[in-house]
Amino acid sequence: MFKEIVREITPLTQNDCFTLFSRKKAEFTFPLHTHEELELNLILNAAGTQRIIGDHMDEIDDIELVLVGSNIPHGWFTHHCKSPEIHEVTIQFNKELFPQVLIQKNQLINIKKMFEDAKRGILFSPENIQRIAPRILNLDKKFGFDSVLELLSILHDLSIARNSRMLSDITFTKENYTFNSRRLERVFEYLHRDFSKKVTLTDVAKIANMSEESFSRFIKIHTGFTFTENLTEIRLGHVSRMLIDTSYSVGEIANKCGFQNMANFNRIFRQRKGCTPKEFKQKYIGQRVFV
Question: Which domains does the chain possess?
């Protein structure tokens, strides 16, 4: 799949901390693409635009703010947008802006987690967008050290913002995810390896060396989701990749990804993606550029 998506070479150089583009336009013309740099994208006056982040597709409102991690396919497409004056502010920066020796420090734990979550794309809440947007719009009026300090401050404030939402399913980008718990890492290693098989709460509780009740509380506290929700997310990420990358039928893909009941699979997929598996494949492939 990734050979069929534009690999963008951004203008960010080794001598720059970040780059910023502020553009007003009547349509989105750049294709689905990836790049190494992290990207903070503020979009105004673009209701009806289609956004694709990883395997997540949605139609946006008048204003949105998204942080996109390294190498995740993403793009915005005119779709149903009728606005003659879309305003897009894009900030691109390398993760080396926070080198490992720095981001491991306790004071930066929230930014570290945000960058981890950005591997799936993060959509910030309307309340936080209203609060942060003026600072992003004014960032190009700052220069040198002041501009870097302001960007760092913006990233910090976003890292502690509430009600943010991760977009793409966890397995879609094939990134490695870390947890502050060896027990959880063992569990997720198992889930990522055996997602296509029958996996029970009893199985994973044993791996974590906990009772089922204790593990259920443990995984909910540390991930924000139940065991079943985490397993479903992993399976759906693989489903999305296979829909895009293979010629298997929907039924074959569902079975290979651990969904034994087609009615239940179709219900879950539509609930999570807002469309049927067939519609998802058609929409996604329609935005790819073959190179």
Answer: 2-166 (2.60.120.280), 182-286 (1.10.10.60)
Q: Span 21-34, mean pLDDT? A: 91
| DSSP code at position 124 | P
Residue 48's closest CA among 5, 22, 84, 24? Answer: 84
Backbone angles phi, psi at 43, to 5 degrees: -125, 130
- Token pair in block for residue 61: 């409102």
pLDDT 10s digits, 163-188: 999 999 877 766 656 666 788 889 98
Q: Are 234 and 171 in contact (CB under 8 A)?
A: yes
Sign of the torsion angle spanned by Cα atoms 29, 283, 165, 37: negative
Q: How many residues does the chain have?
A: 291
* Cβ burial, residue 190 (10 Å; 0-12/13-18/19+): middle
Backbone angles phi, psi at 60, to 5 degrees: -90, 165
Structure token digits, residue 126: 């309307």
Query: Which pairs from 272-275 meet CB under 8 Å and 24+ separation?
Result: 272/169, 272/236, 273/55, 273/56, 273/57, 273/236, 273/240, 274/57, 274/58, 275/57
pTM of the model: 0.76
Query: What span, in angstroms and rounded, lies between the C-alpha atoms of 242 and 244?
Result: 5
Q: Which two tokens stand for residue 276?
A: 């049927």
First to last CA, the chain: 11
Q: How far apart are the C-alpha atoms of 284 and 76, rounded to whole Å?
A: 12
DSSP 2: G
